[in-house]
Design brief:
77% of the residues lie in helices and 0% in strands. It is mostly helical. The protein has a single domain, classed as Tetratricopeptide repeat domain (Serine Threonine Protein Phosphatase 5, Tetratricopeptide repeat), CATH 1.25.40.10. The longest helix is centred in the last third of the chain and has 22 residues. The protein has eight helices and no strands.
Amino acid sequence: MYKNKINELHQQVIKKMDDGDFKDALNLTYKILNCCYHYTVSYTVGGLLIDIGSALGDKKIVNEGVELLKKNFEAIIHCKKYAPTAYYNLANGYFALFRFKKMVDPYVACFKETELDKVKINYRKALKCDLRDKMLTSQI
């Protein structure tokens, strides 16, 4: 029952994002989060929050997505079908957080470790997974 509701809401969020309606997409994303507690919800909502937060330029939303993914990351990547996308979404989240810092300080990456290092690590891990989705492979 929850799985159908989550899938339905997820499709609505994607449509809203495609239409450029990120505020409604965010509200629907939080509805998914409130459906139930399961690592697949963290996987789905974490990626959505990262994408929506990036589009809205909202660091807090991106960070929430990253933290949600990290919270259940071991369970998520244990499922081989979710692992490549989970690494990809986490890398995207770290990249967005890095961009927010770089807007404040253009030299943030000089001579110190930043989120950019985590981006590279997670993209590399995604590429090491069993990638059957050619679109995801090209995005990585």
